[in-house]
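Each letter names a residue; structure tokens follow underneath. Both lines appear below:
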Amino acid sequence: MSAPYRRVEVPVNGGFLTVGIWGVGEPATLLVHGITGSHLAWSLVAERVAGDGNGMGTGTVIGLDLRGRGGSGEVSGPYGMAQHADDCAAVLASLGAANVVVAGHSMGGFVAVVLADRHPDRVRRLVLVDGGPPAPVPPGDTAQDRIAAVLGPAVQRLEMRFPSRQAYTEYWQAHPALRDWNAAIQSYVDYDLTGLEPSLRSKVNADAVAADSLDLLEGGSPEDAWTRLRHDAVFLRAERGLLDQPVPLYPDPTPIAQRMPVRTLPGTNHYTILLAEAGAAAVAAAVRSGPPC
């Protein structure tokens, strides 16, 4: 029996955040998505963690759409890791959740670390999924060059328009990291689309992505929060990169391993660590009870 799923809206400054909730009961888990994602990036993980009310699973799983993304796409700024962390705390307060496991993927890992720093009583343990620790500085002479070097097609798609839902699906199916298509990816892609044919577009606010990218590269809160991190944490590393290239986002995990356990998940890239069965199962195991073997 699958866990129940529903959506609610939580008020924050600038509007209402869309929050997906899987399961029932205690404990609660918070899932934080990446820079151009939504809470549905976590669906395969959430379904493996959430309780169904009949003794299966482990409680309630909360996944918010960060401001400027998904159902929260129209929520205005300011953006940045500190603002997202405060939004996460507001969501947890609204739902009466404290002392939760927080899992963050990609940029969501940085949000999770800042959340633990700014609201330590809300967080019990961190699961950082291919994001959160300081990453190598990307090539480029300017911040804009460095952002393009890392995000590339993810940023370009925000300016694109698509004549139909099928055209948007086909765009994603051509992504080198998503060769093994599944229902979870399809739902994630469908949810990201807004507008009317023949001018459909991503729900992601390009200004939010630009501001958050700059904060990750030059802002003080992510680095300071990492330096002060005292919560129990584990780092789950994708074996391959954003475009399924053999060099991962974190080529050398040695400095991270000095702070927390590191597990490289074989056969995963930056996307399939959440959006494929094997990666999602390993991440869910870490969320439930600690790092996978």
Summary: The two ends are 27 Å apart (CA to CA). Strands lie at 5-12, 15-22, 28-32, 60-64, 100-105, 123-129, 193-194, 201-202, 232-238, 262-265. The chain is about 35% helix and 20% strand. The mean pLDDT is 93.
